[in-house]
Amino acid sequence: MAEKIDCAARLMMITEGFKNNRKALTAIGDETRQLILLVLLESDLNGIRVGEIAKKTHLTRPSVSHHLQILKEAGIVNMRKEGTMNFYYIKANETQWQSLSELMKLIVEGVLHISDNQGKDDE
After folding, report:
1. What is the band of 1 on the pLDDT scale with cuts at 50, 70, 90?
2. Total H helices, total E strands in the chain
3. Three-class DSSP category at 102
4. Distance of alpha carbon 4 from alpha carbon 113, whole angstroms
5. What's residue 107's pLDDT?
6. If DSSP codes are grouped into helix, strand and coil, which group holds residue 59?
């Protein structure tokens, strides 16, 4: 019986994790935004301008700006102003990344639990 409670509790935690991380998951789930994130990861920690991202990704500046805004709203990317220039960088929001990491861990535990139980059923 304790195992069922653990499964139910895990499922509830996963459901809550999806709800709490919806914006971040949507933001990083898009291929174009993944490409932008890779460019940001390759740049130095001071940030990179939209024009530079556009050159490296072969996207238009408006497209890059649109995707950066989505990443910014999701707490994944941050912007720093220097005069009239904007520099974008991956936000080191430990809470956001930790929350995503914990969600993935719960999902893996659930999958492994199901897999273990299916193996017992086959015996």
Report:
1. very low
2. 6, 2
3. helix
4. 11
5. 94
6. coil
